[in-house]
Amino acid sequence: MRTAIPAGFLTHWYGEKMEYYDKIAPGRKMVVGVGSALIDILAHENDAFVDQAGAVKGGMTYVDDEAIDRILERATRAPAVVPGGSACNTMVGIGELGGQARFVGKCGNGRMGRLFRSDLEKHGVEPRLFASDSPTGRVLSIITPDAQRSMLTYLGASAETSPAEIAAMSFDGAAIVHVEGYLLFNRELIQAVLEAAKKAGARVSLDLASFNVVEEARDILPDLVAQYVDILIANEDESLAYTGVRDEAAALEALCRHVDLAVLKLGVRGSRIACQNQRLAVDSYGDGWAADTTGAGDLWASGFLFGLVNQMPLARCGELGSLCGHAVCQVVGANIPADQWLTIRNGMEAKWQKIG
Hints:
35% of the residues lie in helices and 24% in strands. The protein is of the alpha/beta class.
């Protein structure tokens, strides 16, 4: 690991008003993630391998199960295999931070499905998983020397989640329901999720997930955001696809037009947050070096949403997001090592002890 995270980084989180908490269901701290239950296959290869695999550099492409096997036959080294999926990664981060987290999705009945469930429980996440006889979905994430990841996704059992299975009971007690943008490829399902989340009295957070997801959903996305979404999270590429605007300030204004809270993630340049009349700039953490950017946005959301439901000021929510995003970039895959989670938690606890 390149950079140690000092416990003293998390400072001054007490004695300040959390500007957004009054819009979240009183007394609730549960964040529920909804998305694809997937196994991540992490392969370090070059740009030529990305091209030969038919992947979109920095994006996500759906493929069948056999296509992943064929591509892996050409891999130059053995890949790592870990549980993953965007919303799942975010919930794991919240669980590791000591928060209340639940994941809703569908996986297979076999060994990979059991691995997925046990991994959630290990990280303090409540699994509400629908079961299928189909294989658990897989994502081949090709990591190039520039730390970019290009994804080839076989949804497997996760694609079988039906609107009828998504009921308000999936979201009981939820303060925030966090939806991964990849669900936009299943329009009936995301509609059911959004309606059920609102029926449960939760705020809805939507991570736009990938620029090509936004492009594919351009005809329905603006209306869904305006009608259901409270918190909208995007990186630069996703923001450009959604707003058509490159300028950071103008893009942030476009993102927040129909939501209470908008986030524009800028990688090593930090992030920008808009909430009502507030406009905040949050620095990134570290020197910009990354072993792999897999899960960076997912773990940024972990810190940010954990901060929101724990009444932290927005700037501190962004700082915790930056810290978690940085930590995951120091390792391959989306799993921050236990010792680093301990450092982060100890830093928070030291500050909270001063409150009382």
